[in-house]
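ENCODED BACKBONE
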Amino acid sequence: RLERPGDQLKAEATGLRKGDWLERPCALFILIFLVAVAFAQASPLLSLQVCPTCEIHSLRQALEIAVPGTTISVGPGTYEENNLLINKPLHIIGMTNQVLPVVDAKGKGNGFVIQADHVEIAGLRIKNSGFSDTEEMAGIKVIKSSDCLIRNNLL
């Protein structure tokens, strides 16, 4: 049904009726393509690799650029970092061939501090957390978080 009298003349001149563009395969393909491109550009980076020779060579840097749900794969090596704050759902997985990647807190503070739900830390050796008479310190400290999976680590 056409809503205005002038629409009838336009429809006859172009050979199109209201809704016809969805019936044309080319137009439908272009629409699907544009939607796919928009989603691809908006999709978050869900996988990061950290290693001494990688573009991202520190866990702190990876934690800063990661978006919720990112898997951070940690390559072999020693990472001298402490108080690594995890404040979003992440998966931090050591890529091991038999030697675990090492997070060395250098005797200062915690290795990791988890302040988010749905965090996984697996396959790491975490050593040299600090000591204090007034504050609890740990290789992996979990604060007000739930559904965290900490497995196959050496602390």
